[in-house]
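Sequence in, structure out. Go.
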Amino acid sequence: LSYRLKCLAIDEQMGDSTNISSSLSNLASIYLTIGQAAAAETYLQRAIAIERAHAHDNTRALAVRLGMLGEVYLQEQRLDEALQATVEAVALDSVAQRQSNLGIRLSQLGAVQLAQGNYTQAMHSLNQALPLLNQAGNLTSEAITYQQLGRIAARTGKPAEAAKHFKKSIDIGQSIGNRLVLQKSYQELYQLHKPTNPALALDYFERAQALKDTMFTEKIQNQLSDFQVKYDTQDKEHRIAMHEATIKRQRT
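Output:
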């Protein structure tokens, strides 16, 4: 956040609207990741205003910003607003025939429709997204899309189909080493099998928990490492200041 804010300040000083919009979007992405949707929305709305003013040149960035705004609204459970923003994003990429981007937008649309309980529409959007994501090589989004299809199957009484989708997500997650995708898919399979096959459910639960513990441990280690760097830096600065003070006294 600190570096991104500095980037935004420089972009604003230079007055380049394209770079300002990009910096605003990057800040929004960080706030969305850490669960601060209100802050993310503030930056995104500024970016969207800039892109709307330049939409006659290229709508690619506007579609990206609108898709992200849909994710913000989804996180806040403002589902009608999420649908409106995402539908507009899908339309922009569809008209411009940006197939790889359209796959992402359709996946985002499916997530909103799933949250609304519109399972038929969500399944249609997600099934449209899959080949586009696969063709573009966007494996992370493809794995998430399979997770969403698995949730739909689970909620509509199709456990075998749900398990198939979750296992496909796991295969992709393992191929790209995405532990967050794996952890969520294992958790979904635990919930799916818990009522009918407790032993299998327990196996998936333990896998999910092991990944969660690993990621948590790494997070703590990174925080400790950051703290050590800051401590060492402050200690070095303190010693330099003390040395300079000693020289000043000697000179006096």
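Check: The CA atoms of residues 118 and 143 lie 21 Å apart. The chain has a mean pLDDT of 89.
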